[in-house]
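Journal club prep — side note

Before the paper discussion, L.F. wants everyone to see what a predicted structure for a comparable chain looks like in token form. Sequence:
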Amino acid sequence: EGIAIIGIAGRFPGAENIEQFWQNIKHGVESVTFFSDEELLDSGVTTEQLQQPNYVKAKASLDKVEYFDAAFFGFTPEEAAITDPQQRLFLECAWEALESAGYNPKTCESPIGLYGGMGGTNTYLLRHLLPQFDLDNPEHNYKLMLGNDKDFLCTRISHKLNLTGPSMTIQTACSTSLVAVSMACQALLDYQCDMALAGGVSISFPHKTGYLYQQGMIFSPDGHCRTFDADACGTVPGNGAGIVLLKRLDNAIECGDTIYAVIRGTAVNNDGAHKMSYTTPSVTAQTQAISEAIAIADILPETIRYVETHGTATILGDSIEVAALTQAYRSETQAKNYCALGSVKTNIGYLETAAGVAGLIKTVLALKNKQIPPSLHFKQPNPKIDFANSPFYVNTDLQDWPAHDTPRRAAVNAFGVGGTNAHIILEQAPDIISPEGKHSHHLIILSARSQSALQQKQQQLLEYLIEHPELNLNDIAYTLQIGRVEFDYRSCFVCESIEHAITQLKEPEYIEHYEFATEKSPILVFMFDESNQLTCMDSTLYETESVFRETIDYCSHFLLSHLQIDLREVLYAHKQPQSNHVSNKTIIHAISFVVQYAVAKLWMSWGVYPQAVMGRGIGEYVAACIADVFSLEEALLLFIERHYFMEQETADCALFEQTLSDTEFYPPKLLYLSASTGNWVDPQVIAHSNYWQKQLMAQDNIQATFTQLPQSFDNITLLDISLQNTLYLLAKQYLATQEQQILATLIDSNETDNSGAMLHTLGQLWLQGIHIDWKKMYLNETRLRIPLPTYPFERKRYWF
């Protein structure tokens, strides 16, 4: 089985996001900052330190690590300030990885695991918090522990994001994050979870600071990392965070996930005691880890064309790593110089616990973009490495990655101080083509915790669509609907193409906006009416929505023997409703009943369930049917007998009464507002034939009916499902001074695409906080989750 990488997020030196990171890597950018004396002095470096000849004024740092969106994640200002920035940044990255994959953790039914690690020494705690807190105070100690101890890195994020799979902090020094990925893969293969986040974070303070170079140690004398080069003397300290979202490959394909790459094999081991010292790497153990991962992947090493190395740029470390790789590969092939080597440390320095996942993300992006990026600062090979007789060469230029007889494959190394080694085999993702959609209109929804964040989301989407006009609009709408947490500040619009979406995003006045209080979800009332004029419908809903089509088909077939005409011929073939058995008025009312019932069932199939119903004339039969007072079949028979009685001047109501006596009535399962009485109906009253005998000849009292609504509930949304929107217009008239939301389904125009009109109304319902079951809209359709811009965090400074 393969493990699919379906989501990626990270913050790296010189890169706020994964897109910037890839552009930097691709173009060979070195993201190491060389500080001025003034910057270092402001950061707390002493004049004596600066004057030391071996002080190197360089570091691969992050911007604004003291900033965090505390309100978004439910932190108080004090909680945010005493929480290690490593925890805060890793939390943001976890959220972004889920969003990049199109998953909403609040509604995801599958257990999601989390495996990660953080920097070895919490310098924020040591330098900023401890001097200002009373350590004899138990409350202070407890707060400091939760916000800063490694043990709570993953479990706290799992709590914040509702992750219910295994949640484990991993610590193996510089191999931490790659070991975390390996353990997450194993959890997926063991079915401990269905998705898993894995990665690491490392941030040290003071943030703007250099380091003291010491010969024989791991840091470079000049702030540059020269992996595999003859002048290699160490790496550069760096800060960053990276995380990936993993899923079993077959599940990822089934769910339409975007797959960046596939993990085919992983291995983790330890050097043990068979080496010169605790901190010295071991050729034997590294070789075993590499060989085991290749064996688990069940591939030949000669099919691997790129290895992202640990690459610490020390003469001993680099030579041992290439020696181990060569031994592992030589067991299967004698081919030379076919596999490129690189190290992300030459770009962003040594990220400690986040180093492994940084290399993994770089390699995954290389596979996805079919390019091998350059490794920097390589001129002459390390004299202890015999590249000429090895399978490897150091790649120094951006090169295309052509396909061969096998899929593109790569490997990633990570070795930790103390001897825990990890190796991962990657393979290019399978080709998945987005299917053509059946809908001509699409509902785009956006939400945020604040109005300003919502505006940023709209701008983000606009810029993204301009940059990616090739995207499938079906997938964009689908991902935004099911793959984002829904917040109180909302906007939406209906569009027909990418160009149409861009136009609307450029003109915000065309976008519907709404802010609502979540604790006041409105009471939704379905309204049904009696149509007295012929309606011929556009066929879009019938062609695209299976629930609507199946309902129309069933009712038309059921009524065929009674009406002696197929209602679909009148609705969609635009034939005149002629029948030798019943009047045209009966057929018009039959169409009114059937279409309203089908539209209501379509709304409900999308998760839009009413809490109350009301109906007038034939519409009351639809309302009762939706409320389960009687069955659909019984409602249709009652409708036929009702019409037969009302259209025969000399007839009595015996047949209608007989049909009533044969009908099984039940108390309505919804609140029931009657237009014939102008009031709410007692459930026991409506579940009796006497009510329907009186309803037969009753005059409607629609004004009194509408008057009941604001007297009964403070927050009501009325949805007119009638064909001519008559109740919508009457509600506007009678409730003109009320703050009720009144919407029309708008399905009566021959020129208008009914699906577009319904999507517009659906958007209005969503804006007001009514729950939509987005997944049910796509039950008979295959759609893909695609990467789209993630949440624009509104960060503020939280710092001691």
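L.F.'s comment for the group: The chain has a mean pLDDT of 91. Keep this in mind when we get to the figures.
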